[in-house]
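It is time I had a proper look at our fold encoding. Can you supply me with one protein entry, sequence and fold together? It will help me judge whether the discrete encoding reads sensibly. Leave the record below and I will have a look:
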Amino acid sequence: MPIFSPDRHAHVPSYVKLTKQPIAGGTYRPLANDEDSNACAPSALSGHHGSKLYTQKSAIHATSDNTSIFISGAGTLPCLPEMVSSGSVSKAEIDNNEQIASSELQPHQPAEQPLNQVVSVCKRAAHTTAKTLSTAGHTAVKATKVTGHAIHTAATAAKNAWHTFINFKAVQLIIKFFRKAYGPWKKRMRFSYAFYAIVFTLLTSAEVIFLQWGMYSEPTYDKGDEVDQTTKILNSVAGQVTKFVSQMWLEQKSLFLVNFVGLGLIYLALIFVTNRFWIATLLFGTAITAFGVANSIKIQLRNEPIIPADFTFISGGDAGNIASFIPDNSQQFVENAVTVVIWIIAICLLLFLLDRRKCFIYCSWRKPFASAKNTVGTFSRALAAVVSVVILASYATNLGTGGSWSNMWAAKQGYTPTLFDAAEDARNNGPATTFLSLTKAPTMDKPEGYSKQKMQAISKKYSKLANSINKSRTQQLTDSTAIMILSETFADPTRLPDITFDEDPIPNIRNIMGTTTSGTMLSPGYGGGTANIEYQALTGLSLANFSDSMIVPYQQLVPTQSNPYSFNQIWTQKYGESGSEAVHPYYQSMYLRNTNYKKFGFSRLYSLDSATPVEHTEKIGESPYVSDSSTYQDVLDLIKNQKNPEFLQVVTMQNHMPYSNYYEAEDVLQSSVTDDTPDDEHSAINVFSTGLKYTDQATLDFLSQLNQINKPITVIFYGDHLPGIYLKEEQNPDDSFLLHETDYFIWSNDASPSANVKLDDSEAAFSSSNYFMSSAAEHMNAKISPYLALLTKLHEEIPAISRVISNRGGIGLGTATYLQSDGTVTDSTSMSKTQKQLLADYKLVQYDQTSGKNYLKESDFMSVD
């Protein structure tokens, strides 16, 4: 008896038999995939003859195995047209069409549940994603296998090639040789510390002698002079170097020892920092030799040794530009020095390989505390490096400070600093000592009585003086354009004795000087120092008031100041950024002009490499420098485009050293000199004077064009220093003062109220660049500030102030030279009470601006009403 359970088939869906539908007018198309075969029909379709068609009354979850579907020609199913056109349908479309078809075939069938649709979509999406990832994975694996196979093939080929190479008999012999030599090589000796000490002493002594040798030059003698052979030997370079060394025993002056200690401390610091003796020796020998070469060339060209501030040229990227100044007669010297440096490097590297002692002090950074030996070695190595650097820094920074430990020790050895003349100091005390003593340069000594109350009193004092002077003056400085032109090495070459010309090199400027305010300028430089003269002209401050170690304010002082004062600010205070601009047809970082001019308040500096470069860069002949006529044209362009009167700072380059064969032979001026003048000096004088001839004509043309401009314009023109080409005159004390005299003039165009004005020679015959702005204001009959009033009064009492060494008048001078109105030299002790008081006030003002509290900034001391 069959067992019947009514609940057993409760879950089976019920079916209703429908009328058999005809199959006509349709086609069979394969589905896109098996999973979508039930998407467009309520059940699996079949074309078998005699089958009965049933429709689903509830959801069917089984998946059909059919691989094709019948497409009705009448289009009874909504999804079929899309399938026909696209060949495939989405899951959502199929499910939607299934609902529609089911409802059309059986109106009583309920709709498919949404949850089932979402689950079905997710399953199919997951399946598609997995399939895609699988394909990508297979592709990546295949690519990896191919790459690995290629690498393996290449490695095998390289391995085979290597084995083939080392199997050659010659190679085998070499390998056997090195295997046999490895044992002895591993047992090679460690050089002793005594050997290190010998090398240290010899190399340091050699560098001291080499540096000192570069400070001297062979003397020349007149043909009529009777000089015995012993004197010639003693005065030769070798004789002077020997004297420098032997004075330890002959004069009890151990300056050789002072230089040895200075260089030795540098050497030791390198040894302990690198902890490699031969590497430190390589660095020390290379660096000091290069320093000696540069020092010798600078002495030859500019009569000035290398000082710490010179390294700002390198940091500013001007090393290549400086190299261009090397004269032709020094090229062989430089090449020989390069050869020596190469030998030093080669020998040091060879000894480094031969010496089994790699570390000067044993240490182990990987396991610094693994043992007592490692601990002591690591601690000693670190301590030695720190202590050596500290001692070197302390020695150098105190050497130039009186009363310090290193200064007192050096003084006992015979050290007597004369830093106001760095070249003389280097000759007497050694260039290494001079360099180290300038590493820390105090600006200037604090004047007696400096205080806020004192500076307020000075401000009131010179405000009254300014008001008194301004009562008789009717013009304003800012109503005119002022052009301050520093003409590179412009100085009348006929002023020096024993030199004559068939043709006057500067006839036009000589004529201009005769018709306008003009005179002789006392320059602190010879052969160099352009930036110092420029600094004095722009600020009104004098190098004579600074400490001896303040040699180049542009490099040692101005970069450290936050708001230094300069005269162009008179215009910028009224007109803003358009009040002042600068032109220098060379590289902007030379003497840090790009940064210093910004501090001074110039809106732009036009140079060869500035953001907006100079437009006119024509040169004369083979000269590497931009001509003065091109520079003047740039200035004219600025004037034509200006919105208001300006202060224009111009520094030319045409006549900069060296003086090679730049010009056509027929254009070169010919001079007559004494028979004992060296040929190189004579040739350089001719080329230099020819450059002055071009400057003379260009300046006349420039002033003529300014006369065509209907704007008041005043020009302050001056030469900064003489070129360092007068070798014979350098050795004659009677000519030393002449080597510091240049020329200047102040001129106004026809549109200016001060046209054709010429100040009396009693006021203008002698001057120094710190007075130029006060003299220009007097020439222009312009109102002045209290600061300019101080400079005006000081110029009346002390016409020129400069840092010059001279024996003129039989007076031995130190850091400062003061001229009377007749050009005679005076010193501070013989001055009048008025002169002493003015000079004391001037020093207080300079100290306040550079080293003090800048109390004057709080007043109107710099303001022009």
In short: The first strand starts at residue 15 and ends at 17. The radius of gyration is 46 Å. Residues 114-166 form the longest helix (53 residues).
